[in-house]
Specification:
Number of strands of chain A: 0
Order of helices and strands of chain B: HHEEHHHHHHHHHHHHHH
Largest sheet of chain B: 2 strands, antiparallel
Number of strands of chain B: 2
Structural class of chain A: mainly alpha
CATH superfamily of chain B: MetI-like
Distance between the termini of chain A: 22 Å
CATH architecture of the largest domain in chain A: Orthogonal Bundle
Strand content of chain B: under 5%
Largest interface: A-B, 125 and 134 residues
Number of helices of chain A: 14
CATH topology of chain B: MetI-like fold
CATH class of the largest domain in chain A: Mainly Alpha
Structural class of chain B: mainly alpha
CATH architecture of chain B: Orthogonal Bundle
Oligomer: heterodimer
Helix content of chain B: 55-70%
CATH class of chain B: Mainly Alpha
Distance between the termini of chain B: 15 Å
Strand order of the largest sheet of chain B: 1-2
Radius of gyration of chain A: 25 Å
CATH superfamily of the largest domain in chain A: MetI-like
Shape of chain B: globular
Shape of chain A: globular
Helix content of chain A: over 70%
CATH topology of the largest domain in chain A: MetI-like fold
Number of helices of chain B: 16
Strand content of chain A: under 5%
Number of domains of chain A: 2
Radius of gyration of chain B: 23 Å
């Protein structure tokens, strides 16, 4: 992999020991191949994103006439207007309802379960069993269960409602959330729990007054991870809803593309609008979001 | 997703037998258990049951014995779907792993500009698969897309119109989205390698290349396995992207297992055979996860999960 990394060993001797191998400065450690890959990747990432943004600002005629990568000669918000007018607000609202309606209950029940598993797992065989079940649940792919989920939703008379998306979304968020939250609750010093007990607090009280504040960063992280997954979810809305007024954003994008296929600038404007909330979130809390993305897999 | 992580949690739980205390807590796990049972466990069992029935998705469900299994297992579509699934998995692994490793090592440096680059790298992770597929579909248009933009004839091919090319596009788009994610995992792994190892190697006169292969890579062994497990098991679930990008086409060139299941179930309304494919999907996923765990060695991979 890193070939070309010839080293000027002479310079290496001068490198002060406290500047570790990944500090800037000590030229002898320069990673040429990694650097090349890094800059190349930057171009590969930036070009499509740049293209999405400029194209969404072009009129249809400009799109066909101009070089695709030239900035628009007549920037227009016309595409955005037509997207917003085709019921975009409705889909946006549906996505918000589905995301919040799934993430909040999912994190709440996972937090309670994680607390019970950590605090009661030693004494309760049932809780240990539940823990194993959730760990195995991590391996279940959503796609593989979609047919029975569809059947259950029909039988519950929930087909074509937002609740039909919400309930399975909660279920599939639980295993990973429990795993991550349990790991954090386990890090709370035992003495704190003991002193709460001395003061006569109930387990319910300890859950809310001790574990909750101490695991707040983990709760945020888990919420973000689940939120992003559900916001971008496509399969559940595709299978479990039908009518346009129950559409969530990813599904709406797909139908937009079917309807306005030739109007590429409008399609791309819808892509920008659907992604904008997450980009704003990313700008506000990048660290939280990234730790949310690698939740459970990092290190 | 590295699902079969053993119950590390349970082992680490305080061993002291606090009589009855666990008993007063069990109800707190009930809401999570209930919803997971109804929409996770029951469907997993249900899909196996449904694979032995005949159902059109709307009417009544009839028991049908091995009918679906016979139909699926004798259909040449199955080996094809398995092969395409394998290709997507193998190619995306082979492309993503070296790139993520390189970028991960690069990002492990704490220079300011690298942190800035990282901010940009992660943007693709924010897009939904549907948005991504729509974007690339337009960007790869032979007449108005990439090829026209750069004036390079090679880029102006009918990317989604030819089988092999379409498969390549799927692999590329997947990589475009997920390389930063895996690079992030590697970055974390690299930063945990003790600096003293490099200092010792430096004293011994080992070059940069040598250091990479005798320190960085061996130290990252378990990171590689974690990342590979996520890539491989995750590649079974590339449904959204392929569905919107190619719909399995052209022909059935990109018809992976998950798409095969969808088409049989929700387009041909053959829920029995579709369920049989779903069962195969689960089995393949489990087998792969187990295989990779075996490669990784039990103790180490659990300590990686605990590292959280």
């Amino acid at each position: 992999m890193s070939t070309t990394l010839s080293t000027e060993r002479g310079a290496g001797v001068e490198t002060p020991p406290e500047s570790g191998p990944f500090r800037a400065g000590g030229g002898w450690r320069r990673n040429w191949l990694g650097g090349a890959a890094g800059w190349l990747w930057l171009a590969i990432v930036v070009v499509p994103i740049y293209w999405i943004v400029i194209t969404s600002l072009k009129s249809r005629t400009t799109y066909y006439a101009q070089n695709p990568f030239a900035p628009p000669t007549d920037p227009t918000l016309e595409n955005y207007r037509s997207v917003v007018e085709s019921d975009f607000a409705r889909y946006f609202f549906n996505s918000v309802v589905v995301t919040l309606g799934s993430v909040l209950p999912a994190v709440l029940v996972s937090f309670m379960a994680a607390y019970a598993i950590v605090r009661g797992g030693a004494a309760s065989r049932f809780l240990r069993g539940v823990n194993v079940l959730f760990l195995m649940g991590l391996a279940i792919p959503l796609q593989a269960t979609i047919i029975p989920v569809y059947l259950i939703i029909i039988r519950l008379k929930m087909y074509d409602t937002l609740l039909a998306i919400i309930l399975p979304s909660i279920a599939f968020a639980v295993p990973l959330s429990v795993l991550v939250l349990a790991n954090f609750i386990r890090d709370v010093p035992k003495e704190l729990f003991e002193s709460m007990r001395m003061d006569g607090a109930t387990e319910w009280g300890t859950l809310w007054h001790l574990a909750f504040p101490l695991t707040r960063p983990a709760l945020v992280t888990v919420s973000i991870y689940n939120g992003l997954t559900i916001w971008n979810g496509f399969l559940l809305p595709l299978i479990l809803t039908q009518s346009p007024d129950q559409r969530t954003l990813p599904l709406a994008l797909w139908t937009f593309q079917g309807e306005y296929g030739v109007n590429v600038p409008a399609v791309l404007a819808s892509v920008v609008l659907a992604t904008l909330p997450i980009v704003v979130l990313y700008a506000l809390g990048r660290r939280q979001l990234l730790s949310g993305l690698t939740v459970g897999f990092g290190r | 997703m590295t699902g079969l992580a053993p119950p590390a949690a349970q082992v680490r739980a305080a061993p002291k037998p606090a009589g009855g205390r666990g008993g007063s807590l069990w109800w707190m796990a009930l809401p999570a258990l209930a919803i997971f049972a109804v929409f996770g466990i029951v469907p997993l069992v249900g899909v196996l049951v449904l694979s032995f029935t005949r159902w059109d998705g709307i009417g009544a469900i009839h028991p049908a014995g091995f009918e679906s299994w016979r139909a699926v297992l004798t259909d040449p579509g199955l080996p094809h779907a398995l092969w395409v699934t394998f290709l997507v998995m193998a190619l995306s692994w082979a492309f993503q792993t070296p790139m993520s490793l390189l970028i991960g090592v690069f990002l492990a440096g704490r220079q300011r500009y690298r942190e800035l680059l990282a901010v940009i790298y992660f943007i693709p992770l924010l897009l939904s698969s549907a948005a991504l597929a729509i974007t690339y579909k337009a960007l790869l248009d032979p007449n108005f897309g990439l090829g026209a933009g750069f004036g390079i004839p090679f880029l102006a091919q009918d990317w989604l119109g030819r089988g092999n090319l379409a498969l390549g596009v799927v692999v590329f788009v997947v990589s475009w989205q997920f390389i930063p994610f895996h690079a992030l995992i590697y970055q974390g792994g690299v930063r945990q390698i003790p600096i003293t190892l490099y200092e010792a190697a430096q004293i011994d006169g080992a070059g940069r290349l040598r250091q990479f292969f005798s320190i960085t890579l061996p130290q990252l062994k378990y990171t590689v396995i974690t990342s590979s497990t996520l890539m491989v098991v995750g590649s079974l679930t590339f449904f959204d992207l392929i569905f919107v990008l190619t719909e399995g086409g052209p022909g059935d060139a990109t018809r992976v297992l998950a798409l095969d299941m969808y088409k049989r179930g929700f387009q041909a309304y053959l829920m029995g055979p579709a369920s049989a494919i779903a069962v195969i999907l689960v089995l393949v996923g489990l087998a792969l996860a187990l295989l990779l765990r075996r490669l990784g060695g039990r103790d180490q991979s659990t300590s990686q999960m605990e590292g959280m």
